[in-house]
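ingest -> validate -> predict -> emit
validate: passed (alphabet ok, no gaps, 350 aa)
predict: started
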Amino acid sequence: MVATANPESYAAAFQLDEALLDRFHAVLPVPEQQDGIKVDDITAMLKLSWSAMHEQRDVEPESIARVFAEIQQAHAELVAQGAPARIADYLGQVVPALLKALKEQSGPYISARTYARNVPETVLAVAAYHVVAGSKEPLRAAAIDALRYSIATKFQIKTITLDAIHQAAEGCLRGDGTSNADRIRLEVAAASDFAERLTYLREHWDAIRSSLGPDEIEKLLGDLLRGASKKGEQEKLVELRHTLHTLGYEGDALRQTDGRLLIALNAAVNMILPRLQGVLDGRKPGAELDRVRTNIDTLRQMVASGRFLANRSADVRKLQTHLVDMKEGDVPSDNDSLFRLFAQMTLADG
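emit:
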């Protein structure tokens, strides 16, 4: 089954129904001819159009039939060589990681028809073409094509997500299985959100250090840092910094985390400090008010001495997270909310 569709920007053009789209094996995008087009591109299209309209060319059906027969033979040979089992091993690694990764993006629904039938059939068929075309790694080339055109383009998923998962699983296509390093890469790629990736880092730090090279570890930590540095997500810097310290890591990612957290906390503290006296005004005397006053005084002392960032106690981390959340507008910042926050903790400048 083959279909074409105009861009949605065209008048009376609509997006293809998802249930119908799910039945296609692949979606091949037609590149835009509006932006960045060059003179040579226009010239080439004009020559091709002129040739098609005015030059008579003899069609060679025998050649087409011969190539098609070669592809069919290559397909049969791949089946006889056990390619379906290697494709199944490969997709057995790729699909769970992909489905899990899509949760973070609130991604589209991918039916079992796509990943259990269409994609493996597409990989095998395209691999047969690559055999005839002379590819040295037909299964690998076919898997890349299938992921991009049967999944990425079809469901508008970023290819960078698929590429990371593919690279970790491609050993299965060679019959090599999945190494410890590849297993870790797959599990990291499949982590559905920042908290899950950070938990994985804590629980598998020794395995990560022994299986991945220094550059790859730095990339993994850099990805976490970028996720925690996004606007509206900067409270995550507190827990990332604590985790890196706990693991004994002292590399560049920790220094960058410190720097970005310091900027976020400075902005939050500068916003909140002038208001803290108002938090105490008009409160009923008693143990709760004394606790809040003591905690506010301790915060002021830590800020004045430059020790607020360095303090890693649980209550200080809780306060740091709350202040950054407050700066970003994610939690209430009225006096009653602040009073309850300081009443629930015991800060220590140490």
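The CA atoms of residues 74 and 80 lie 10 Å apart.
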